[in-house]
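# nightly structure sweep
# worker-07 picked up a monomer target from the shared queue
# config: single-sequence mode, recycle default, output format = structure tokens
# input follows
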Amino acid sequence: MNTFLLVFIAIKIVCLFFCWKAVKMAKQSTPNGTQKNKNENLINSSEDWQRAHKQMSKLMEENKKLTASLEELKKSKSS
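# output follows
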């Protein structure tokens, strides 16, 4: 009986070790797992924000031009 308990405890320890190792590796592979990945994500999100801001500026300028041309068309149509 004592041998069975020792073997059972040894198996439990081995299982816990591998579970701990798997959890540790899973945390490192996630984007928020390490500080380096967090910094890279911040840089990428900052670049994405800048791209979106530039695109929004272009669209706003295009909207102003289209609004002006629409007003000109309305004036020419009413005249």
